[in-house]
Amino acid sequence: MSEMQKKMSRNTKSNLITYGMVAAAFLIMQSLISMDRISYLVEGLMVPVCVYVIMAVSLNLVVGVLGELSLGHAGFMCVGAFTSAFFSKCMSDVITVAPLRFFLALLIGIASAAVFGLLIGIPVLRLKGDYLAIVTLAFGEIIKNLVNVLFIGKDSDGFHFSTEGAMSLNLKDDGMVILSGPQGITGTPRDSSFFVGFILIMVALFIVTNLINSRDGRAIMSIRDNRIAAESVGINVTKYKLMAFTISAAMAGAAGVLYSHNLSTLIATTNNFGYNQSIMILVFVVLGGIGNIRGSVIAAVVLTLLPEMLRGLSNYRMLIYAIVLIVMMLFNWAPKAIEWRERHFSFLKKKKEAVR
Amino acid sequence: MSFISYLINGLSLGSVYAIIALGYTMVYGIAKMLNFAHGDVIMIGAYVAFIGMSQAGVSPVIAVAAAIIVCTLLGIVIERVAYKPLRNASSSLAVLITAIGVSYLLQNTALLVFGANTQTFPSVVSWGGITLADGAMNISGVTIVTIVVCLVIMAVLITFVQKSKPGQAMRAVSEDKGAAQLMGINVNATIALTFAIGSALAAVAGVLLCSAYPSLTPYTGAMPGIKAFVAAVFGGIGSIPGAFIGGLLLGVIEILGRAYTMSQLADALVFAVLIIVLLVKPTGLLGKKIQEKV
Predict the structure, then answer these.
(1) pLDDT of A190-213, one tens digit each?
(2) In this predicted structure, what is the pLDDT of residue B43?
(3) Does this entry carry the keyword ATP-binding (chain B) (predicted)?
(4) Between chain A and chain B, how many beta carbons pairs sit less than 8 Å apart?
(5) Domain of residue A214, residue span
(6) How far is B80 from chain A (nearest CA, A)?
(7) Residue A29: left if φ>0, alpha if ψ -120 to 50, beta else—which one?
(8) CATH of the domain at A334
(9) Domain count along chain A
(10) Which of A142, A275, A282 is nearest residue B97 as measured by Cβ atoms?
(11) Is A332's CB within 8 Å of B292's CB?
């Protein structure tokens, strides 16, 4: 029993460190911004950093906790971004209180991403391993492509839909085009802020860390470790897989809401909602440590800011980014490198064990 | 008439996908990894052939040969430096992310060396093609050459894997690495050979792709790479005939989709067909069923 209590307290301590770290980082950045010590470019990156942190934490729920590889996570972000931006643009005249409008948009973005997560999860989670990965990638691409051919307009008669073009919506004079195919949604009210992003990160962290340490979370992890054993002790595999997948999709939807309300023009391209983005987020998760939530947060922050820090190197920065990525992966994961680290830094490890 | 010409164009694009998918599927079969950098090897191959033809002014045959040699060496080096150290890593995701890193590296190296401008690729096939039905239908030379090259590669590869000693070694390694080693097979050399063949095929695919669709940028390889990966999964990843069938089907679906539905939805259609196939046959058309041991 005391062993159990000790373990629980270690979990709680670890979670508190994560929360504290995020809060401290937020306070430091916020005070630096208010003192004007930070360049305009870096200040503009604060909301994207929050978006990627939430994405990394939510993908870690699928990859690290559930143990399935998803390559279509940006698709859920896309759903959240477009549904919420759609709502905000429709309601920009009706609801003038920005925080209320953003909150409602957030709920809508989360709910629609969760519905997509559930609908996609039901067929997808029957597949295994790399097949599952490619199907999630396919769904992500389909969502992105569909958004790019959809035109939606609004006038006094209600909503008009088309896949042909803005002209074929046949809007009346008082109408306006809301979603304009490849041109996306323009004029979304910019309701996101660094503070909102920080709050969303804290909520996401709270949900994930509590889920991991709950009965449901242990059921999910048991499926990851051995599906057949989990099934044979009576764990409903489909239910728990869907649960993790849907929660993760909902969180990606929240990140999408944050993302879309930070831009006045929202368009779906390969780089923001395509497989490139999904892969980028997977890089955060793997580099930060699969299943390690705090690691995901750190990796997302560092890797989002890294290209900016390397800006002085102009054309070479993405090259250096690629090399850093490869070297870090080799150093972290290659069995030879791990052996070498243990030989040369064994004193660090011993110290840790002594504390334990 | 137009349907037949769409079909032939689809088969031609599908042949390119099939050649790329062969590289994916062989590497997956033997190393159990998704080589995300494969698409960018295609792009490097196309650039080498492009430089050879338009700047060095050599004949297309020499340019293609140079592209094949460069890509083969590149494939071996990538495997040796970036993938081999991670072969026994505790998570299979590690090598996947490293492959993504290699993909970024190749793209950005190409960006620095060749520039971001779109280059117009001169076709390697100067033959004008054939005209059928009194000029109502014209099949370009590139189309025919692409389909023929794909069929030849397919036949040679199947014979190689089934009959030759190195081919048998490849099958043995993909079946069971440990047992293959005990039988005296040089596992490292066999895996390197697989990467070499896959990358050489990528060079051929790059040249053929750019001959048919002549715009070349450092990102040219990314989307065909993903599509070919889909084709490999479609046919059952790890299976060589599967990659062939998957590639051809994908090309035909894409071209017909582009012709008869909205062109922006062609990619979505390709992915939708993949999803349906995988839901009915979870390991692809010709994939092996994996038995689960308790």
Answers:
(1) 888 899 999 999 999 999 999 998
(2) 94
(3) no
(4) 133
(5) 2-355
(6) 12
(7) alpha
(8) 1.10.3470
(9) 1
(10) A282
(11) no
